Amino acid sequence: MRKKRLMELKPLKVMNRHIADAKKTEISLSTLEKQRGEPGKYRMYCRAAVEKGILKVYLFAVTDIEENINFPRYRLFISRKERRFITYDEKLKKWRKALLESILWDVRINLGNIYVNDCDTKVIQKYLKTMQPAIRALEEFQANIRKEQRIRHDKKLTDSWDQVMKTISGLPKNWIGWVSKYGITEHYIFYKYQKNGATEGYCTYCKKHVPIRSPKYNQKGQCNVCGQPITFRSVGKSGRFCTKWYRVYLIQRRRKTSGFVLRIFHARTWYKKGGYTDCETTCHEEQRRIFSANGEEISNFVYGLFKQREMRWISYGEPWYYTCCGIQYKGMVYPYTLSDLSRHELKETGLREYALGQKKIDPGKYLYLWKTYPVLEQIVKAGLFQLVDDVLDHRAADAIKRKGRKPTEFLSVDKKEFRRLRDMNGGVKELKWLQLEKSTGKTIGDEEICWMVKEGFEPNDLKFVLDQMSICQIRHYLVKQSEKSGDDISHVLQVWNDYLSMAKRLGMDIHDSIIYRTRDLQLRHKEAVLKIEEMKRGIRRRELEEKYVGFQKHLIDLKEKYEFSDGEYQVIAPKSIDDILYEGDTLHHCVNKTDTYFDRIVSKESYILFLREKENPKVPFYTLEVEPDGTIRQKRAEFNRQNKDIDKVTSFLTLWQKEIQKRLTKKDRKSTEESRKLRQQNYQEIRDKHVVVHGGAFAGELLADLLEKDLMNLPVESAENEESPTEIAA
Predict the structure, then answer these.
(1) What is the pLDDT of residues 474-505, one digit of tens each?
(2) Are residues 254 and 232 in the same domain?
(3) Same domain (yes/no): 191, 309
(4) Closest residue by Cα to residue 289 from 266, 326, 312, 260
(5) How far is Cα 728 from Cα 641, in angstroms, rounded to an integer?
């Protein structure tokens, strides 16, 4: 269909009788169209004719006709012979290959809103050889053409995939038998219940009737004949059931080409009620990984739904877990194809030895990492299967060199240490300790290595003390301190490291055995913590003293004016900067960390006071921020919280407010007016900035709202106020 010739075809016009017929005909709307409020009238008129083997379908818009526009909005041309269609959009002045329904959707016109008279309908039906209504016939023809185009396009792709699949051989004759026995490791001994205990059962592994003794339902055991771990099942209690899914692998040489394929299956066994000897093993193939003769992966296929049309083998990308995490999908590998492959395609991989030695493996991941670590072959042939697993779990990157002629070279150990590693079937953790032995020249016994590995320790975890003590001494010290404190070994190690780090900051000689090997670690750690806090407070105190010269004088009058007590609580005033800093450190809030509160004290906007329990006057309890007249802005306990006793505390503070009102001077009241203005101004600023609380029970809430809730006015004004936990804030 040439566009120029299509435009030269005789045009069609909409006739007055077409319009009249359309107005007489009722349009049928769907329920959804009615809900959408679709107009119950036609919005387009359709004319059709056949010329030079081409079906012409002209669509006229009602709005165009009402404006005396006689040419069509769309001209659809269809060639049944060429299996093609194309539409000319008169409004956009361009050709469009889209479906009619898509074109009309652009202008929000439904296919059901198009009027076609009987004569034009017959033209369309005759040309398209269908009895469907006109518009439906056009829609189906276009949909079929699209489907054919997609199939032709996809066939280029699927044909190449199918060619690869033709190189895959069939399954071995004993495949299902091998899977049911070895690939699925879940086996049972079925027995018939007897009053005095069953003496014989059927083993699903060795397929024999075997002697048993006093079995219990679902009890774990071992077959007396084949030695296989089994589960006892009573025939009378067991209905139809199945094992869990097991991953199994098959590696085969490809037909009529080079290379091999790794086939991945999921299998399980179904047992019928009472028919334990007649079980059924199902095996579903999910993936095929294609490799070249030198072990390089070429392509990967999965069995899945293709283009929502059919289930088939589909080319797929590389599994993500091979490259970005330590996940291994282990399963049994069919062994009878490995012998021949290991002499050719798998000769330099060590895969056969790994599969036979380790039983359950992930061969796909092994082959992938073998390209990165060719030394895997030598590690496997040395029998270091645990070390191989660590490499596959991406735990050995910093311990193994990627290349090397001898195991001692790429493992960075000598012959003696290599033999020790092999004897203990060590992994990367054991290897790191042996590497430490080689680098330091200090012998580390097998017993110490095994203990360190069991506790999860690596050399880097002990580097803070390795220069002062042997591994044996470190072990004994950790055990002794653990027994003394009651803490687990890992916590003791953390405390030890923390203590020596603080000791160094405090200028102590950490090379002195009295320091690094202290008898009471927990006590010395606590002492160091207090000294570090004191040191920090000293630095902070000097900073504040330099900034607020003469700060002490602002605290002189607080004792006489604001201190008060009853039978249970008391309010006391700070005597120095140190008191405020100690309060903040002990209760773990920000009163000591920000300069804001010190600025307010100097300007007499507000003061910091301490609420104590009368029985423990030296133990920080609540911190108060108080305005000159006794209005309490904030009352915070440890970690900016308010405890369960807040109601009792509030009652006492109300009593305290009444008492100190008697002590106020005119100067105090004048300062209070200014303080109130500044407080309201501060609330408005943080509200305008939309400052929210980060963390805690009120995370995400506006700080201004929480501060206003926490405000405790004088008793006369605060009768209706309720307190709510918020954070001390600047």
Answers:
(1) 999 999 999 988 889 999 999 999 999 999 98
(2) yes
(3) yes
(4) 260
(5) 9
